[in-house]
Write a structure and sequence with these properties.
The protein is of the alpha/beta class. It has helices at residues 52-60, 86-95, 99-127, 132-154, 160-181, 201-224, 242-248, 252-267, 281-295, 308-324; strands at residues 3-7, 13-17, 20-24, 30-34, 38-44, 49-50, 65-69, 72-77, 298-301, 304-307. Helix 6 crosses helix 10.
Length: 337
């Protein structure tokens, strides 16, 4: 299995020697890696240096370099995509203002809601089957989420803004259920996005891992030939890739939420944040290991058994075929294990 090289400290140097990638630590120690055994390198941008030869070697072998600053990825260096499908981009843009586009948006929302229900049922079944008080509270939230799902399914005329409002309603019930499931020591009182400056470890961890997931999906979208900024659910913006945000919705619950919540339930008390409410280096390493181990899990989806990371790569390709009319339907990723 190819290695994911994660350099979370400061002051690393990446160079090339005798065809090998050499990693030098600030203390002077070195370690060499065969480029053929690497699938990616993730490094803290502070104090990082990389030689041109090392960068050329990584690009030649398709090994991306993800740059991280203050708990979040800020950039990615990867091989330049030289091929593009003009017809696909035209059809992708045309679908934004057609029934096809709104159908894709509705499909994504309905699937996300079902994934939320799947996560809640799995957590209750595997962690709290004997706690009737928790089971009843979570079941009440599942019923409310199911009611939102039913409203969306039965609505014949709807807009993107209406879909987003229903998604927000479902998410409110979902995170309220998660708050009931988590141990009180975690101090999780509801979902808080990064701009809301959360101070609890779960929200900060969620925001960190969602950003990592975004880069995984973004790379897959680029490989498919789709334009990352032409989406169907999220609003177009030059600051964020709307199609990437759309396709991320399929993977938030199975790839980030469930593994992370299971981790916090198991650990209960987690030493995750420093005095400035930032992720500690030691805990960040655990999050990275949890995330990339999840991507390596083998699951069966659409009659194909493959690691989750492969299904992430395949979903934009499947969407592209649907947009081009080569496929009659598009099925969102719905495996929660």
């Amino acid at each position: 299995m190819p290695l994911k090289l994660i350099l979370t400290g400061y002051g690393y140097r990446i160079s090339k020697k005798n065809g090998l990638l050499t990693i030098s630590k600030p203390d002077g120690s070195k370690k060499e890696f065969s480029i053929g055994n690497l699938s990616m390198v993730l490094a803290n941008i502070k104090g990082l240096s990389i030689s041109g030869d090392a960068l050329r070697l990584m690009i030649k072998h398709g090994v991306p370099l993800i740059l991280v600053s203050r708990d979040r990825p800020v950039g990615k260096i990867q091989p330049l995509m030289l091929k593009t499908n003009i017809r696909l981009k035209k059809e992708q843009f045309k679908a934004q203002n057609s029934e096809l586009g709104i159908k894709i948006a509705k499909n994504i929302i309905l699937n996300k809601i079902l994934n939320q229900v799947r996560v809640l049922k799995r957590l209750v079944r595997t962690k709290y089957s004997t706690r009737q008080d928790i089971v009843l509270k979570v079941d009440e939230k599942i019923q409310e989420i199911t009611s939102v799902y039913r409203k969306i399914s039965e609505e014949e005329v709807y807009s993107k803004s209406w879909l987003i409002s229903k998604e927000a309603e479902s998410a409110k019930h979902y995170w309220e259920a998660i708050a009931n499931i988590l141990p009180r020591e975690i101090e999780f009182n509801g979902r808080r996005k990064k701009y809301e400056n959360p101070e609890d470890p779960l929200n900060i961890s969620l925001n960190y891992l969602y950003t990592l997931l975004m880069y995984q999906v973004w790379y897959a979208v680029e490989l498919s030939g789709l334009d990352p900024f032409i989406g169907y659910l999220h609003e177009d913006s030059s600051r964020r890739p709307s199609l990437v945000m759309d396709l991320m919705e399929e993977f938030r619950q199975p790839v980030v939420d469930l593994p992370l919540i299971n981790y916090f339930i198991k650990q209960k008390e987690v030493e995750a944040l420093d005095s400035e409410k930032k992720l500690m280096d030691s805990f960040r390493k655990e999050l990275l290991q949890l995330f990339f181990n999840t991507l390596e899990k083998n699951v069966t989806f659409m009659n194909r058994s493959a690691p989750i990371k492969t299904h992430i790569r395949l979903q934009p390709i499947r969407l592209a075929k649907y947009i081009l009319g080569f496929s009659n339907s598009y099925r969102c990723y719905d495996v929660v294990v």
